[in-house]
């Protein structure tokens, strides 16, 4: 508010006073009297923190197009209000231009994949360079934020495809490992089954031998005048007849077992086999 020679400056503002068109002084919040003939209020400067949004189109080290969005928070330095008021005609646009220039200098130094991991580093560099430059113009950079890194649609599709291919490759690797594990486990199971089958067969033969030994001993002891050889011959003959009986009962046998100790026996066996075929 101003009433001729009296001006009121609001809180968080500075008033710039000129004397005959020349900068005279700055006044803080309150009511101030000036010389109406030679002095005037040239303008006001806000001491509040202000925000600038910047959108920068650039490309990365691997030539991927990307849009970087940044937010800059700044305020006027009270002791350098003269520079802030007279050196910049449009602080928002000029600070935005400085920020865009810094971002365009950083992004091309890094590939696309790395850009997302160095956000904090980019923010720090942007603030340091802006603060160094803006201090000369009466502004303090409070904070700089990289709010978004947006690749082009083609780059997004390519990155998605790369990620998909990587997942498919990993899945194929896992599937191959599972198939390998199945084959190995199946081979181990088959080996263990054969080992156990062999152990069982060996135990079976051992039991058969022990039983046969016991039978021969008992038979030789019960029948007088027969030795172990005679008993073995008798047992073998019984097994022979049992085998012939099983072959005759099944009716699907293609092999006839004949004794090899007599030609007459062999002829009789062949004749018996032919007779069996005719009956079928």
From TrEMBL:
Residues 4-163 form the Band domain. InterPro entries: Band7/mec-2_domain (IPR050710), Band_7 (IPR001107), Band_7/SPFH_dom_sf (IPR036013). SUPFAM superfamilies: Band 7/SPFH domain. CDD domains: SPFH_like_u4 (cd03407). Coiled coil: none annotated. PANTHER family: HYPERSENSITIVE-INDUCED RESPONSE PROTEIN 2 (PTHR43327:SF31), STOMATIN-LIKE PROTEIN 2, MITOCHONDRIAL (PTHR43327). This is Band 7 domain-containing protein. It comes from Bodo saltans (Flagellated protozoan).
């Amino acid at each position: 508010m101003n009433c001729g020679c009296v001006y009121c400056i609001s809180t968080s503002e500075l008033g710039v006073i000129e004397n005959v068109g020349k900068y005279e002084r700055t006044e803080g919040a309150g009511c101030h009297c000036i010389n109406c003939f030679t002095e005037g209020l040239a303008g006001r400067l806000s001491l509040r923190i202000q925000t600038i949004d910047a959108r920068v189109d650039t490309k990365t080290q691997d030539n991927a197009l990307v849009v970087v969005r940044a937010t800059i928070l700044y305020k006027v330095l009270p002791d350098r209000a003269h520079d802030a008021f007279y050196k910049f005609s449009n602080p928002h646009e000029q600070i935005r231009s400085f920020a865009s220039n810094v971002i365009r200098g950083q992004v091309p130094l890094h590939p696309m994949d790395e850009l997302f991991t160095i956000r904090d580093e980019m923010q720090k560099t942007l603030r340091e360079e802006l603060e160094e430059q803006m201090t000369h113009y009466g502004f303090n950079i409070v904070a700089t934020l990289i709010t978004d890194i947006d690749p082009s649609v083609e780059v997004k599709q390519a990155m998605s495809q790369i990620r998909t291919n990587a997942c498919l490759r990993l899945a194929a690797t896992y599937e191959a490992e599972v198939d390998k594990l199945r084959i190995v486990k199946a081979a181990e199971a088959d080996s263990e089954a054969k080992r156990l089958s062999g152990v069982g067969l060996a135990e079976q033969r051992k039991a058969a031998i022990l039983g046969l030994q016991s039978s021969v001993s008992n038979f030789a002891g019960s029948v007088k005048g027969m030795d172990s050889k005679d008993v073995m011959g008798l047992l073998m003959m019984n097994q022979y007849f049992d085998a012939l009986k099983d072959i005759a009962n099944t009716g699907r046998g293609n092999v006839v077992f004949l004794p090899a100790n007599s030609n007459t026996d062999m002829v009789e066996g062949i004749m018996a086999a032919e007779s069996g075929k005719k009956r079928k």
